[in-house]
Amino acid sequence: MRDNALAIELHKAGEDVAILPMYLPLMLDEEPLEGLKETPIFFGGINMYLQQKLALFRKTPAFIDRLLNRTSLLRWAARHSHMTSAREHGKMCLEMLEIEESGFRKEFEKLLVWLEEIGKPEVVCLSTALQAGLADEIKKRLNVPIILFFQGEDSFLDGLPEPFRSQCWNRMGERLASADMLVSPCRFYSRYMEERLGLSEGTIEVMHNGIKMEGYELAEQSPEYPTIGYLARMCREKGLEVLVDGFIRLRKTIGREGVRLRIAGAMTAGDIPLVKELKARIHKEGLDEDVDWLPNISREEKIFFLQSLTLFSVPVTYPEAFGLYVLEAIACGVPVVQPEMASFPEIIESTGGGTCVPRNNPKDFAEAWDSLLNDPERLEAMRKQGREKVEEHFSSPQMSKQFLQLTRAYQPTN
Q1: pLDDT at 151
Q2: Can you give 308-367 as a three-state secondary structure string?
Q3: What is residue 185's DSSP assignment?
Q4: Residues 6+ apart with CB under 8 A from 40
Q5: Domain 227-394 in the same topology as domain 4-206
Q6: How far apart are CA 211 and CA 228, in angstroms?
Q7: Could you give the maximum distance between any two Cα atoms of the chain, in Å?
Q8: 163 cis-preceded (ω within 30 degrees of 0)
Q9: What is the pLDDT of residue 413?
């Protein structure tokens, strides 16, 4: 299991839960599940890279592997992960889907032995369909059901070069048969992946993502100036360029004076060129003083940031599997304007906390922001209803209930 909020809620419900980090340490902005710090990291990213490059590292002693799996070293590697080529990602992905024949058998054996030593679990959850290659051997060794989660694998696989793109899609589809249950975070992504993988409708169950509600509260007072916010990785795929162009149009074409823009989220070394380009565009329009850039903020800073907003948008350009940031904004009473695609209509229909516009169109975003800013009664209704419905449908306790309903309804066939 990888979702920390879900694991904590299951633990509160009396379940014995363990999170097993893979490749890198979990990057959390909240308190981790008890015992997580003592859990080893499996398939450590540096070990995996070296074993792929040099056969020597497939036979190194355990103490060397432990040194390479140090949290500080892996965090450093995560910051420089853009240095790894898409081709190398493709080869490693394919080898993980064909784990029995790959050079990563040593790493897989560590995981299997650890699972055996802690006592046979009732169920093993694989956090992404890209781990489907692990399912068959885990079932053979432990004789337990496997639940496999989808979390946006399509965008990663589609970004691989050929022949790895086709090979990984095909192999992942074949290896899904080893899982006892497939789970998607929303109805949209469930059907989307069923179609792409040639699966029958209803093959993939739906369990909505949820958030830990503590701290997510309505702001005590409105911002001094109308403020549009963005909270996601600062990259083109998340629609940052659409957001900035929409803001410029709102200020310069529509003439909405006094509105400000606040941009927060992760910014990697690979994102810096785009950020520089957009800052130059904003500077050319004379709007520097009205735009804030807040990279890599903590959970407390994130909540304070969200409470400083009037409206929220992340105009993603691809079919994102969910978008937890939308729930976080609505939970703080911030109405959202999102693309009419992916999971967003589903979330907005369930919460009433915003509206949708055509994708990838700055003009439509600018006009929607302007319309909502001109209708304070509608904004207030979205604020209150959205916060209430997130707690009702998308909180971490609700996510835990959905998970237990799914797993307890499962009847093993063997």
Answers
A1: 92
A2: CCCEECCCCCCCCCCCHHHHHHHHCCCCEEEECCCCHHHHHHHHCCEEEECCCCHHHHHH
A3: S
A4: 20, 69, 110, 114
A5: yes
A6: 22
A7: 68
A8: yes
A9: 47
Q: What pLDDT shows up at residue 11? A: 86
Q: Which helix (H) or strand (E) holds 411?
A: none
Q: What is the pLDDT of residue 85?
A: 55
Q: Which two tokens stand for residue 85?
A: 């080529």
Residue 286 gets which letter from DSSP? T
Residue spans per domain, the chain: 4-206, 227-394
Residue 83 is predicted with a pLDDT of: 43
Q: Tokens representing 55?
A: 């056969």
Helix (H) or strand (E) holding 96: helix 86-97
- Give whole-number Cα distances, 386 to 71, 215, 378, in Å: 38, 16, 12
CB 120 within 8 A of CB 153: no
Place of tokens 């169109």: 361
CATH number of the structural domain 227-394: 3.40.50.2000
Smallest Cα–Cα separation from 168: which of 176, 178, 160?
160
Which ranges constitute the DSSP H helices of 33-134?
A: 45-53, 62-68, 71-79, 86-97, 105-117
Six token digits for residue 129 = 């369909």
Q: 249: closest CA among 334, 376, 368, 373?
A: 368
Stretches in the chain below the pLDDT threshold 50: 83, 413-414
Q: What gap in Å lies between CA 202 and CA 244, rounded to an integer?
A: 39
CA distance 118 to 124: 13
CA-wise closest residue to 374 among 285, 310, 329? 310
The predicted structure's pLDDT at residue 46: 84
According to the model, what pLDDT value does residue 37 have?
60
Let me know if domain 4-206 sits in CATH 3.40.1310: no
Q: What is the pLDDT of residue 42?
A: 85
Q: In what order do the strands lie in the sheet with 354-357?
A: 291-295, 260-265, 227-231, 311-312, 336-339, 354-357
Strands 204-206 vs 227-231: parallel, antiparallel or unpaired: unpaired
Going by C-alpha positions, the residue among 44, 40, 48 that lies closest to residue 20 is 40
Q: Give the separation between CA 322 and CA 243, rounded to whole angstroms.
A: 19
Cα distance between residue 330 and residue 311, in whole Å? 10
